[in-house]
Recover the amino acids of this structure.
């Protein structure tokens, strides 16, 4: 499933990233096996996630490109 | 005396510039936000008889990425012109920060890791000795803000810098970096972190974020904060400070003139001193409190960590007009000064978004236009000054959004293509010292502008406005050089309701600096003399809001985008201002002669039609 389909409070593990920004995301630490938790779904569909001890806001298009498995 | 060159490299918002300021006693712009520093700066300081040259570089995430900031850092590393790399990490986000450290470690051996904000973290502990041992790099825990442990950091710099047999591990830095396996490096870091850090990480949003980022409440809260800032700045502060200050300055100017009459000063000198220099300066100084308060609010916003939240909240809305959340920061800075806001656009990655941002930023009403609005609206709409000014600011924002949409169409930019992510920093109490320092700096800049630009412009305007072509004194109502020139182009301004040559002169001087619009009006006879009716005043205000950016801003645009775009921006702003103020003037006149309900329906229809056309 994609990160976009996760609900607030759900935790997951990253399987991989795709799309135009995949290199940026990988360099940022979105590598296979990294744990993430969704903590907010924004007004316009953005996702806020807990990731490597920081909070990251993602545009919905990016969230759809991140493949995860529920933890 | 030996000299040690230190490169400061680290992720964004880890406090590099704060550390730079603390060590070199400088005043670089800092903020609780990512990408505040856009240019590098060098400064030396001496420590125990050694000369240490610090170089502050913009924050980066990974040397493998090909952004402009990464390139700056790579070029510096390739130059080999340094002795020590000072890698700054944030204690909280070590598991991401260390990735860059690993890359740096792969190419260079003279390196120190400074773990910043070590004091802020109370819910976990880091074993720095073990970390240093495992990494094979000296590690110092510091707090740049509270100046903790900076002494041992300097000791460490001296110690590592003493190793002059320093070598670059690899000749070809670029391929060495590209050969680093991202997946394996992160796994290695995760493994390391589990050994050195007692783990207790947060899994939910903080209580404040739950409210501020709530899908229903987030926009109302943002609007509320903005309204509050404007209310404090224009209404409260105006009532309390500016009115009294204005009265005081008035009395002072009159006393000065009376004094000069008494000592028998010649009329030309007396008029120059009172009308041009004192009168002009006073008309702007009156609004100093508002400008100071606006900068105070902006820097609190920037330091608290709310700015990044606003960017996250607004991203979805800005996405629709082909911008992103990051742009909100540049636009907000535009309320302070357009020229410096244009420079903050440097760290926007996508070129098309950067271009649009730079072009629309001058529509955000800068603090230099504030005195013009306050003075003119204060005379014509004394009871609704706050409302009129809020409407002007909103008008600027709406025009900026419309221009962004039009640029998307003209340049055929696909708005759906871009991705966006933003890191939200933890909330921090703004440091009173830093906020006050920023405000004082702005107040100082303001006075410097009054003493230099404003002073010269006013004297020039007064001289050109008081003498004719044969340099005979004709007084401000006579047939002066300035009058002749302004009357020559006055017909151009008739459609937007400007019928006095003085207003044209004021607008021309505004090209140099926007504050001079109001000081020149004061010099040339006062607001009531220059703008005869309320409709004309309103059109004039709209024109000042939107017209050609000042020289400093045009120069900034030229540096960011080049000659072509500086010229285009010049034309776009002038033409937009002309069309919109003409519309405003026409509509205001229609309103005053026709009953309101006859007018409102067609106007609403036109507006709806325009919105449909754009969408």
């Amino acid at each position: 499933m994609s990160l976009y389909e996760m609900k607030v409070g759900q935790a997951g593990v990253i399987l991989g990233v795709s799309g135009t920004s995949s290199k940026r995301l990988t360099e940022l630490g979105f590598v296979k096996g990294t744990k993430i938790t969704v903590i907010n779904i924004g007004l316009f569909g953005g996702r806020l996630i807990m990731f490597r001890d920081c909070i990251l806001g993602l545009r919905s298009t990016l969230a759809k490109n991140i493949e995860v498995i529920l933890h | 005396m030996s000299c040690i060159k230190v490169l400061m490299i680290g992720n964004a918002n880890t406090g590099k510039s704060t550390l730079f300021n603390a060590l070199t006693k400088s005043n670089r712009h800092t903020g609780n936000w990512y990408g505040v520093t856009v240019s590098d700066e060098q400064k030396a300081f001496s420590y125990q008889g050694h000369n240490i040259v610090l170089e502050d570089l913009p924050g980066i995430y990974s040397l493998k990425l090909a952004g402009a900031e990464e390139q700056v850092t790579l070029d510096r590393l390739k130059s080999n012109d340094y002795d020590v790399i000072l890698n700054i990490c944030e204690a909280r986000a070590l598991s991401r920060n260390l990735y860059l450290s690993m890359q740096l470690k792969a190419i260079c051996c003279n390196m120190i890791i400074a773990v910043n904000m070590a004091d802020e973290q109370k819910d976990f502990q880091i074993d720095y000795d073990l970390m240093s041992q495992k990494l094979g790099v000296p590690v110092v825990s510091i707090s740049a803000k509270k100046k903790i442990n900076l002494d041992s950091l300097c000791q460490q710099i001296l110690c590592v810098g003493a190793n002059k047999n320093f070598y670059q591990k690899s000749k070809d830095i670029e391929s060495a970096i590209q050969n680093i396996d991202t997946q394996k490096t992160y796994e290695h870091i995760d493994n390391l972190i589990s050994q050195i850090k007692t783990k207790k990480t947060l899994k939910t949003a903080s209580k404040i974020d739950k409210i501020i980022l709530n899908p229903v409440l987030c926009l109302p809260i943002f609007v509320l904060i903005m309204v509050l800032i404007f209310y404090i700045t224009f209404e409260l502060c105006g009532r309390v400070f500016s009115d009294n200050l204005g009265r005081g300055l008035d009395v002072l100017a009159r006393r000065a003139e009376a004094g000069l009459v008494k000592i028998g000063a010649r009329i030309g000198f007396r008029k120059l001193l009172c009308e041009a220099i004192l009168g002009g300066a006073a008309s702007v100084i009156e609004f100093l409190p508002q400008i100071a308060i606006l900068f105070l609010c902006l820097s609190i916003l920037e330091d608290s960590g709310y700015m990044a939240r606003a960017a996250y909240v607004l991203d979805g809305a800005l996405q629709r007009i082909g911008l992103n959340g990051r742009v909100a920061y540049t636009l907000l800075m535009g309320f302070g000064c357009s020229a410096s806001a244009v420079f903050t656009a440097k760290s926007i990655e996508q070129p098309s978004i950067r271009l649009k941002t730079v072009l629309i930023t001058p529509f955000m009403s800068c603090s230099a236009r504030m005195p013009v609005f306050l003075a003119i609206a204060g005379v014509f709409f004394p009871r609704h000054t706050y409302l009129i000014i809020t409407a002007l600011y909103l008008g600027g924002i709406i025009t900026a959004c419309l221009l962004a949409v039009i640029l998307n169409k003209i340049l055929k930019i696909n708005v759906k293509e871009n991705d966006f992510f933003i890191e939200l920093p933890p909330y921090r109490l703004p440091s009173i010292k830093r906020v006050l320092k920023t405000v004082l700096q702005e107040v100082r800049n303001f006075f410097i502008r009054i003493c230099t630009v404003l002073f010269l412009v006013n004297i020039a305007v007064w001289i050109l406005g008081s003498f004719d072509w044969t340099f005979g004194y004709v007084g401000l109502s006579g047939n002066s050089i300035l009058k002749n020139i302004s009357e020559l182009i006055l017909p151009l301004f008739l459609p937007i309701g400007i019928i006095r040559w003085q207003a044209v002169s004021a607008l021309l001087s505004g090209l140099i600096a926007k504050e001079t619009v109001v000081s020149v009006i004061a010099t040339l006879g006062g607001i009531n003399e220059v703008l005869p009716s309320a409709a004309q005043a309103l059109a004039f205000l709209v024109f000042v809001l939107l017209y050609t950016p000042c020289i400093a801003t045009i120069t900034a645009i030229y540096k960011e985008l080049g000659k072509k775009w500086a010229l285009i921006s010049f034309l776009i702003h002038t033409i937009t201002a002309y069309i919109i103020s003409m519309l405003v003037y026409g509509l205001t006149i229609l309103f005053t002669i026709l009953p309101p309900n006859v007018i409102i329906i067609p106007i609403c229809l036109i507006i709806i039609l325009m919105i449909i056309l754009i969408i």
